[in-house]
Design brief:
single chain, mainly alpha, 0% strand, elongated
Length: 114
């Protein structure tokens, strides 16, 4: 006896990107545009301020993405998935969030290595 599940893309066609994801995209666009229109008179000091602002913005958006994923695996994980799988994913994202809050640079280094 073989059980065959059919999946349809119809349900996914109506899904919109999350608000956090959209905000992340717009913030990345803003960061790129900030470099284009920056006043070059201050030089290095202004460049450092821009980079710090962009980094802080990136950390905030990444934190929101991790919180969204934790919430998903805690409450919205599909019932046909094994609960142990959902719990393990939730714990993994909780650990990532702790690392991001403790040491953002280390977090991004680890994430870019994967």
């Amino acid at each position: 006896e073989v059980m065959v599940k059919e999946y349809s893309q119809e349900g996914n066609a109506d899904r919109q990107p999350s608000e956090t994801f959209q905000r992340r995209v717009y913030q990345q666009i803003d960061a790129v545009n900030a470099h284009k229109y920056a006043d070059q008179t201050d030089g290095d000091a202004q460049q450092r301020r821009i980079e710090k602002k962009e980094f802080d913005k990136t950390v905030e958006v990444e934190e929101n993405m991790l919180k969204e994923r934790i919430h998903y695996y805690q409450w919205d994980c599909p019932k046909d998935n094994d609960r142990a799988y959902c719990d393990s994913r939730q714990k993994m994202y909780e650990q990532k969030l702790k690392l991001l809050n403790r040491d953002p640079e280390e977090y991004f280094i680890r994430e870019t290595r994967n």
